[in-house]
Design goal:
Elements (H helix, E strand, L loop, with lengths): L7 E4 L14 H16 L4 E6 L9 E10 L6 H4 L7 E11 L8 H16 L7 E5 L3 H8 L4 E2 L6 E5 L1 H8 L2
Parallel strand pairs: 4-5
Antiparallel strand pairs: 1-2, 2-3, 3-4, 5-7, 6-7
InterPro entries: Acyl_CoA_acyltransferase, GNAT_dom
Protein name: Acetyltransferase (GNAT-family protein)
GO molecular function: acyltransferase activity, transferring groups other than amino-acyl groups
């Protein structure tokens, strides 16, 4: 499992070895082991799994993606002046985890890019203002901040990044 360049990211299915996934964060391990399948069936979350083509059943990492509304009062005032006075649609990466066996190899970054690409694609059909993430700890917070995510508010563990920042990068090329 050294070549992560051929990583594939697909929706979670019954062929994936969920009990074999461990990332050293109990809440993230428990989610993929016990709750992810139920959330998918109930249409609460979509879960995407990173694996390699020769061992597609081995989960190297996963992330969950869903929607939410952000209260205008949760956004920085510099943004709210330019927005309508009602909740703002967003995509939520509720969980992102990388197997302890392959941490530090860029899989988290690849999954984040995949989540952003999926969200940008959907945002062409359904309005989505920003990506929001739930940072489970300070390490996760630092990971997301290096990609431009900022706190929704001082008292919130959630971070956000307006999709406009990705569109600006696309049009400038």
């Amino acid at each position: 499992m050294t070549d992560c360049q051929n990583l594939i990211i697909t929706p979670l299915n019954t062929a994936h070895n969920r009990p074999g996934f461990h990332c050293n964060v109990e809440a993230l391990d428990n989610y993929i082991h016990k709750q992810a399948g139920q959330d998918i069936k109930r249409r609460i979350n979509r879960v995407f799994v990173a694996s390699l083509p020769d061992t597609p059943e081995v989960i190297l990492g996963y992330y969950s993606l869903s929607t939410l509304s952000i209260k205008l009062s949760q956004l920085p005032e510099t943004l709210t002046r330019k927005l309508p006075k009602h909740p703002i649609p967003a995509a939520l990466i509720g969980r992102l985890a990388v197997s302890k066996n392959v941490q530090g190899r860029g899989i988290g970054k690849m999954m984040l890019v995949d989540a952003i690409k999926r969200t940008l694609s959907v945002s062409e059909q359904i309005a989505i203002y920003a990506m929001v993430v739930d940072a489970i700890n300070d390490t996760a917070k630092e990971f997301y901040e290096q990609f431009g995510f900022n706190r929704l508010s001082d008292d919130s563990p959630r971070l956000f990044l307006p999709l406009k920042s990705f569109e600006d990068n696309r049009t400038s090329k």
